[in-house]
Structure prediction request, 248 residues.
Amino acid sequence: MNSLKFTETVKASCQENGLLGLYSTPENLVIIIKQNSSSALLSLPAELREMIWKLVLGDLEVEILYERRPGSKRRQLFGQAIEDFAACYLSGRPLPFLSYFTKLMSLCRQIYYEASTLPYALNKFNFYTTRGIDKWLSKRLPGQLATIRHISLPGEFMERYIDQESERLRDTMTSLTRVVVRITSFDALSWLQPYRERGFNIEEVVETLRSKMAKREGKEVSVEIHRLPFRFEPVPEHLSKVFGAGAI
Prediction:
């Protein structure tokens, strides 16, 4: 344990993308950084550290759940209220992992520099409501959004996306390479109805929507539209096991 004490506080500078700027080292941190660099973890070759970060922080599906009953602090998961449930849940990891990640980034400047954006770059983000998309994205830094590569969206998002021709996901998520949109039969019965009235069958509607999104996002982005057979989307299997929730 480092026993050095500092009475001086140095204000951290931020880059234009909101992430901390670590280009220069304050004098009072030079000793700490030298000590950290000789630790068992940080003395490993950069390639090995990169593998460790990917194993710890990557290959997850992040479920973004932003539903709450009016006047209540209880968030809802497909109609079932969950007490003190975090805004996002990482599949395959216990909820405390979220706080562990935050603490990991604040341990050391070098760890922050090497790994702070990896959770966004290495994981898939599943959204379940348009409101949830807007709220979650509004709380992310530009530098974090710029590294997101893979997202999954609810069918309801497409209604706004098609109506607002200026909306382009890759304007903020500049590294985006894959978008999956989940279309349910409920979507087909509501906002997709105008397409059907013009003589389109559901397969043609799906392909029309996919083509429009692919054209707007550009050739760098793979767009997939998945038709789900349920009127309402089922709770993902891994969440069903945790919360005992089923399709509604």
The CA atoms of residues 14 and 20 lie 4 Å apart.
